[in-house]
Specification:
MetI-like; MetI-like fold; 277 residues; transport; two-stranded antiparallel sheet; mainly alpha
């Protein structure tokens, strides 16, 4: 048996890690957002809430996050349903590949898309050669290009989160529904989807938070040419013109509040959905 003292000794490195890399930066960010050279102030938050450009960044980030999360969720729902019809060895290989793909993000992902779909990318040149007008007019450095990249790195995460949910749908339920005369569509509408709904809502909240906090891919692709809240924070910290870490901290706090609010709404929806089952 492990004593309490031994358990605390094992937990000490983890607690130090949480303290140094989570709690201390969080407290520093909060303190900085409420301070300036004169002391305590709310000027940063007033600037954020009255600055049209920063509010536009929040709007763009929210729109991009919601749309990419919804598209990734819908595509993955059908993809995971198809995967469940494969044999177990094939499923394991797909999950391994998905796990590897989920780590392909940030600057390497943006560079890969530039090589393929940039102004002189492989597919872009092929589209021009084949005179495919609808595709040759596509710009990777626009909102649609950002959306494509966001969907790409959302898909593996959504698949890994949704696969256990599908796996929880027991074969006995389908057989019992079939014996009672229910069709496949009726089973999913009456049993499958209601059982999976809490997990789907939770997955959406994770995808939303994942997209809201994404920075490297968007910055590598557009630099500071597209207004996203994460890019605004980075620009204010590094100082494109001059550094404003206090304002960046205030934006980061509001971004964190937005993400936490989304998670709380998701948790409330999950509890409400489970209460109806």
């Amino acid at each position: 048996m492990i004593s309490k003292r031994q358990s605390f000794a094992w937990l000490t490195p983890f607690l130090l890690l949480v303290l140094l890399f989570f709690l201390v930066p969080l407290l520093y960010m909060l303190i900085t957002s409420f301070s300036n050279s004169e002391g305590f102030t709310l000027a940063q938050y007033k600037s954020v809430l009255t600055n049209t450009y920063i509010l536009q960044g929040f709007k763009n980030s929210l729109t991009l996050s919601v749309i990419s999360a919804v598209i990734a969720l819908v595509v993955t729902l059908f993809a995971v349903y198809a995967i469940t019809h494969f044999s177990q060895p094939v499923r394991e290989k797909i999950l391994i590949l998905t796990n590897l793909t989920s780590n392909f993000s940030g600057i390497p992902l943006a560079f890969a898309f530039i090589v393929l779909l940039g102004n002189s990318g492989l597919f872009t040149l092929l589209f021009d050669k084949w005179e495919i007008g609808a595709l040759s007019s596509f710009s990777l450095y626009s909102w649609s290009g950002l959306l494509l990249i966001y969907i790409y790195f959302q898909l593996p995460l959504a698949l890994m989160l949704l696969y256990p949910i599908y796996d929880g749908i027991q074969q006995q339920w389908k057989e019992a529904a079939a014996l009672l005369g229910a069709s496949t569509l009726q089973f999913w509408l009456k049993v499958g989807i209601p059982v999976m709904l809490p997990g789907i809502v939770g997955t959406f909240s994770v995808l939303f938070a994942n997209a809201m906090g994404a920075y490297a891919s968007a910055y590598a692709l557009t630099n500071s040419n597209y207004n996203l809240v994460a890019i605004r924070i980075g620009a204010l910290i590094k100082g494109d013109i001059f550094a404003q870490p206090e304002l960046a901290s205030a934006i980061a706090v509001l971004l964190a509040v937005t993400m936490v609010t989304a998670m709380l709404i998701s948790e409330w929806s999950i509890k409400k959905t489970r209460g109806k089952l």
